[in-house]
């Protein structure tokens, strides 16, 4: 590059800077910082970068929520369940759910709590549990899975071991219709192993049954019942007439 070329470049730069300085001041719509320019509804690069990061974070969150919802196995009937109590017992249970499971996963004192919902048919045990699952997935992106005892053991019987394991390992398990059927020996063994694993790993389980407490303990057997007692199992009795009328 010769001297002439350098001087021409310098003149061009000088003209550019002069033109820039002659431009009016505009403020960023987001942060209010002043810049030179004529752009209408101007947004500075810093604000654009921040908005892009926030947009990407929202997309990731929405993707995570949708993934957890797809994996939750919540029955179609309850996929639009609203976490709003209709009865006193539902109000009590919903408050307990949020107090114990609404915290971050690192709060080990709360995430280890098991819950038993027992009592009459049609009193809202499954509904409030599924509504809670939807709420906690959307609010805290916690992994919650729902399944009945029969369907859980059917996974093992059909050799769908990875699916069976996913319920064994999930952050929060809602296990419904416990004790509805008499179990074969192999079914009882697998159920006991799954629940023992969750106990040992401090993974909370929500038990739902139409059995009374004494019948539920007898169904589980002394070993599991003793472990639940040690784990401070919280019990809620659902009484009254069916809400399905």
Helix content range: 40-55%
Largest sheet: 5 strands, parallel
Rounded to the nearest angstrom, the distance between the terminal CA atoms is: 91 Å
The number of domains = 2
Overall body shape: elongated
- Determine the strand fraction and express it as a percent band: 5-15%
* Count of distinct strands: 7
Task: Look up the CATH topology of the largest domain.
Answer: Rossmann fold
Strand-helix topology:
Layout: H1 3-22, E1 25-27, E2 34-36, H2 45-71, H3 88-101, H4 108-111, E3 115-119, H5 125-140, E4 144-148, H6 149-157, H7 161-169, E5 172-176, H8 185-200, E6 205-209, H9 213-220, H10 222-230, E7 234-238
Parallel strand pairs: 3-6, 3-7, 4-5, 5-6
Antiparallel strand pairs: 1-2
Helix pairs in contact: 3-5, 6-7
Task: Characterise this structure.
By secondary structure, the protein is of the alpha/beta class. The chain has 2 domains: 57 residues, no CATH class; 165 residues, 3-Layer(aba) Sandwich (Rossmann fold). Helix content is 54%, strand content 13%. The chain has 10 helices and 7 strands. The strands form 2 sheets. It has a 5-stranded parallel beta sheet. The chain has a two-stranded antiparallel sheet with strand order 1-2. Helix 6 crosses helix 7. The radius of gyration is 29 Å and the shape is elongated. 26% of the residues are buried. The mean pLDDT is 85.
